[in-house]
């Protein structure tokens, strides 16, 4: 089988979602550190977003599609449960995280630290402070969801857990140390999801990315 190439800069939480899927499946892969809206990405994603993927002649864009491909094509424990009800529950969480959690945790809160757009580069407190109450409510939702088993669906780590794990990783690694992160200690959801799985590295270009990306 040809080597899979995951294309996208490490600061991207969506790149990390795919790296978690690859690690869970035990797939050896090449990781290419490429920014959004570059020729290599634009050749695959119609709007130039990362991640994108190449596997032989197969080119895929959008993290959900990439994770689904990885799960289907490679052997190993299934990341998407076979049971249609459970599979729908996994999809509901992926969708909820992508449409509600990511816009607040990453595009608002994290952006306020990483790309504040302030004249002196200091964190955009207005943006961050506006995100915090929304995050409080969302942490409560996530805490309840993982309360029984430590996983969003069932009692195993599935695709549902990967997106929020990547979001938490992004916020933890890139928000300025020492800054007020939120108004109360993180709850079980953020602790449990973030601690549950981490890619172990192994391929060329792997390792935590710390470079500044102009896009989140
Ligand atoms: N729905 C896409 C979202 C990907 C996405 O938003 N990627 C960000 C990096 S985390 C990006 O490419 N941003 C550049 C832009 O929005 O122009 C997916 O799931 O792959």
Roughly what is the average pLDDT, rounded to an integer?
85
Helix content: 40-55%
Radius of gyration over C-alpha positions, nearest whole angstrom: 17 Å
Largest sheet: 4 strands, mixed
Please mark out the parts with pLDDT under 50 across 5 or more consecutive residues, or reply none: 178-213
Count of runs of 4 or more consecutive helical residues: 7
- Distinct small molecules: glutathione
- The total domain count is 2
Give a structural overview.
With 216 residues, the chain is an alpha+beta fold. The protein has two domains: 4-73, Glutaredoxin (3-Layer(aba) Sandwich); 84-196, Up-down Bundle (Glutathione S-transferase Yfyf (Class Pi), Chain A, domain 2), CATH 1.20.1050.10. The chain is 49% helix and 7% strand. It has seven helices and four strands. It has a four-stranded mixed sheet with strand order 2-1-3-4, with helices on one face. A hairpin with a 2-residue loop joins strand 3 (52-55) and strand 4. Helix 1 packs across helix 6, helix 4 (84-114) packs parallel to helix 6 (159-174) and helix 5 crosses helix 7 (188-196). The model is unreliable at 178-213 (pLDDT under 50).
